[in-house]
Predict the structure.
Amino acid sequence: MFATQVYGDNGKMKEYHYTGPVEHRFSPYSFNGGTVLAVAGEDFAIVASDTRLSEGYSIHSRDSPKCYKLTDTTVIGCSGSHGDCLTLTKIIDARLKMYKHSNNKCMTSGAIAAMLSTILYGRRFFPYYVYNIIGGLDEEGKGAVYSFDPVGPYQRDTYKAGGSASAMLQPLLDNQIGFKNMEGVQHLPLSQEKAVQLVKDVFISAAERDVYTGDALRICIVTKDGIKEETVPLRKD
Amino acid sequence: MALASVLQSESVDFSNYGRQRHGFASGLYEAELGLESVGGDRLSFALSTSCSNEDGPDRKIEFLHGTTTLAFKFQHGVIVAVDSRATAGSYIASQTVKKVIEINPYLLGTMAGGAADCSFWERLLARQCRVYELRNKERISVAAASKLLANMVYQYKGMGLSMGTMVCGWDKTGPGLYYVDSEGNRVCGDLFAVGSGSMYAYGIVDSGLKQKDLTVEEACDLGRRAIYQATYRDAYSGGQVNLYHVHSEGWTRVSQSDVLMLHQQYQAEKA
């Protein structure tokens, strides 16, 4: 009736605009974009994220970083739904304080990772729409990266990319840090300077091809001397 | 919640959700901080699980899935072999997932289906087994451990858990192998393969198990071969083959082989 059905080249019908009454549903989730990346080295860990907050076709903010400092040795990067990210980081902060008061010591990176897994699974049937990556130093002072699913399972990695451009970044990291699919190449350990440069390059590439990634890059470098932050501009278009 | 009553959304019933939370005044504090246990003594979740797949116009939340795991009993115990790939939709999220969960030094659990469900419930199972050991001053049997797991997930039947696991171990009745899944199945058996690549694995193991008396070496090779063939044909399996052997002293990790290396090895053997 209202729809003008036109036959396209491949024989299938094309529908233009109004096709009849459409049911609208309230969805509690929003997708706010953003990419997060973490790399672990011998005695350092890097957590980096872009700072664009978008929704649909609009950009809400160009200065909304997705890395949050948890303790002196741990930084978490969360991307996905911004509301869930904020609530989750508040809950983690509260649990960290509770642990500190009852056990008189700070939580280690491994313990934070295990705790986050159970917090996420507690909402198995109404998940936090957040892709988390924790970067920090473990008890021995070595770099550690823990990557998570929205409902909780996690594993320890050397490097991981999460968020909207993760599928573009992960293969590049596999090749450059994991030396995958390269034959006859010497496996050199990653130095801090090389890792930071690699992270910058990788985000510049992501901003080229992913609409939800851009504006600026916030890098947090975790070493035994503390957490250092660096901001690098990216494409704003 | 006023807004929820106005928007009669069928998949997400916020009105129920709000009501249940108010009913537990002391538990409210705990629940908001994620301290609630997902055990059977707690309130049940009224939300339909289809809400987890609903999202804004473009995006779906993807959970990690897809696998091949197998276990079989033989003369000298149980062989457990798994792959190590985790997929979220069509994206390979990881090639290095540990799909065998070491419940305790003589019990193993495998992971197939939803990664979150398997790792959470098997970790809870490890805790329950330890409590049993402390209470009864003896090790838990494989039958009892698998029954505990089956009962835990049966309470969530129909709510969308996805878990197909094998509980393997050695207790005072000898080697034990049970298959437990989120539908409520719990079966004892001599051979199971679970996951998207299970059909391919069954083919290899069924033909290799014809000779009754396998040595440990031969059984390990059979398990490794079966997983390799499954990764060859199933897109959702791959990575590495992790092999465990359960015997009277407990379990030992036999090997971890990259599928690419195995491919080259088998090609060389054929030539």
Q: What stands out?
A: The longest strand of chain B covers residues 250-258. Chain B has one domain: 69-269.
